[in-house]
Sequence to fold (326 residues):
Amino acid sequence: MTQDAILIARSVFPEVEDKLRQHFQVETTPPGVVWSTAEFIERLRGKAGVLTTGGERIDAALLAACPQLKIVSNLAVGYNNFDLDAMSAAGVLGTNAPDVLTETTADFGFALLMATARRIAESEHYLRAGHWTQWSLDLFAGAEVHGSTLGILGMGRIGQAIARRGAHGFGMNVIYHNRSRLDADTEAACKARFVSKAELLAQADHLVLVLPYTPAAHHTIGAAEIAQMKPTATLINIARGGIVDDAALAKALREKRIAAAGLDVFEGEPKVHPDLLTVPNVVLTPHIASATIPTRTAMAMLAADNLIGYLVHGKPLTPLNPEVVA
Ligand code: GLV
Fold:
């Protein structure tokens, strides 16, 4: 039986590529290369599957140009790069990589919160620049983390893992808002209290965004929402670019309407709004919340196993539109 041809849209670890080569004719992408949409479509023609990384848009035009495509396996838990309706209409399966990154991403959410509240990046730059000449009482005095109020917007698996860290590790008062309220047992395990979005904005000392991006979630946090936050608050975005209005946030940070922000995701990334690059009270990281070697390996292996599961055995592990499989 001839093997299906697949494309790896961005370079992955060798062991992942080796595993895929046992089942498919594999076309890879050299490290550091990101194809334009036209180049990507050109490479995708004739392929039965593709391993994407969340940066490749899969829409009706691409699907029409690649009629042999059967599965797009995203090496990410988020899949806002998929037009899932168009994929279902074209009979193309979408899969993502959930669960394996939950705890690692929550660790990073907490790291970013700590770095932001305790001004770690800002003070490190100051020291490296040779500005540290004496101790002073208020030198980089930041916000308290333990015992403060942690607000979480989006209480899925990662939100819950952040809540557990805050409540059990740091004795924080955890409040959350979500499309639907969690059941009582889950709320108890997270020691988290459901509040309205308005209460969340008003009460949080640290507000962490972990909701999925959808068009309806665009600019969930803009100037009006920031105005409802405490002037001492910190805002952390590890969700998706576009959930925060980055221009409005940069202006609010400059005007000290909130104390500080920590951002791992950006509107239009890898471009970053230029105003964010010049305000001191923001910690900026390049979309690395799930980036540990074990976790990125597990995510890539799950993405590979979805390709093998579907194309070889007819059984994907984490399908997003399972009606296509039946
Ligand atoms: C990363 O942002 C992911 O969705 O896995």
Observations:
- The chain has two domains: 5-99+293-324, 102-284.
- The domain at 102-284 is CATH 3.40.50.720 (Rossmann fold).
